[in-house]
Amino acid sequence: MKFEGHAIGYAWAFAAATANASQDNLRKLASGRARPVEIVALSEIVNVVVLGALVLARGRGEKLIEAYGQTELVLLALAAGVLKFACAAALQHALRLTPLSLCVPYFAFTPLFLLVMSFFLVHETPTAQGVAGVCVITAGAYMLNANGATGEEGKLEKSPRLEEGGIVAEDSVNTFGTRRRPSARGPLDQLVPAGSSWHFDDAELAKRGCLRRSLTTQMSTLRANPGSLITLGIAAMYALVADLDKLGKLHTTDLLVFMFMQRAFLLVLPLAYVLIRRRGAFVALAASKKVAVAIALIGLLDIASMFAFLEALNYIFTSYAVAAKRTSILASVLGSAVFFKEPIARRLPYVMIMFAGMALILLADAKH
Fold it and tell me: Which residues form the EamA domain (predicted)?
């Protein structure tokens, strides 16, 4: 019976992953045609209208009124709504700066943050194998950032918008105050502080050079692709949101009511901005059916993803549900190649390593 329950939980989580992967590609499509806050506001209008209609159609109006009288539930819905707005707006901005296939893999860090947060917030204790899975994910992300962001000729791949702006790293002295100096071995370049007169033997110099090159590559890649760094921050916020969703689910007697409350709070800030500063967004939306359909689908898929995820929490730990949900990464990366012609051949091996880490987490739960 326990195994069947877990299977149901993972089925819901993978359904959420399917919705998320579709959302990622639609968000990338819309990112070049509207501002981030506008996309969030317009998609959330769809969410609130659909959820509101479902609440009324199912006769949950009285429960909704009662729910607004529960202080803890209101605070949880408000906090989750505000954080989800920040995440959605930041993600739309990240997708304007950086290729989709370099953004979404960093969502694999969400289970890492959740293992810590869930222990304190909802008292979920991970297994040793689950922790090992998170370490594999972290290693995969590190390698993706260090090697997967290089182009076919081995050059650092920069975001298109940064290339258009003419932002190019200097060869002699870089942003981090270091300059290249050939070692005594000849072709091996070492990184030493600019203006430094320090001297090391070849072995020590090689060790320091490799470490510094590795860390500098990480920082240079994130600098060239700021959307990746933004997505890493979003992954941390998503971890907190996932726990808030679970706490809200535990405090409510009606999942649909909680979802409506949360989305209503989420809508307030972006809608206020659009009404005050960007009223023309509605006109632009009406003029482009393609964008209108994409934004409407983003909203509907968001509802489907949230509902499936909250249902999964009935059967499995939050960190494991999120790990299963994040299998959407692979589908999103493949979608970036199909729909946006992004070069993913060099990135797929590192994405698969992160995928293997998530598999370890799922297997840990199955044994547990």
Answer: 8-145
State how many domains the chain has. 2
Q: Are residues 134 and 192 located together in one domain of the fold?
A: no
Predicted TM-score (pTM) of the model is 0.72
The one-letter code for the residue type at 191 is L
- Give the CA-trace dihedral at 61, 72, 123, 360, to 10 degrees: 50
Residues 200 and 295 in one domain: no
Per-residue tokens: 75? 């605070």
- Please tell me which residue, 309 or 138, carries the higher pLDDT value: 309
Quote the tokens at residue 205.
């110099």
Q: CA dist 144 to 33, 103, 105, 136, 308, Å?
A: 28, 11, 8, 12, 29
Nearest Cα residue to 347 out of 330, 359, 361: 330
Residues 250 and 204 in one domain: no
Strand partners of residue 21: none
76 has a pLDDT exceeding 70: yes
DSSP-assigned letters across all residues of 190-216: EEEETT------HHHHHHHHHHHHHHH
* Cβ-based neighbour number of residue 355 at 10 Å: 20
297 and 185 part of one domain = no
pLDDT for 243: 86
Angle formed by the axes of helices 2-31 and 348-367, to 10°? 150
Q: Which residue has the higher pLDDT, 55 or 133?
A: 55
Residues 133 and 250 in one domain: yes
pLDDT above 80 (res 251):
yes
> 133 and 180: one domain?
no
Q: Are 105 and 137 in contact (CB under 8 A)?
A: no
Q: From 171, 194, 222, give the residue that closes a domain.
A: 222
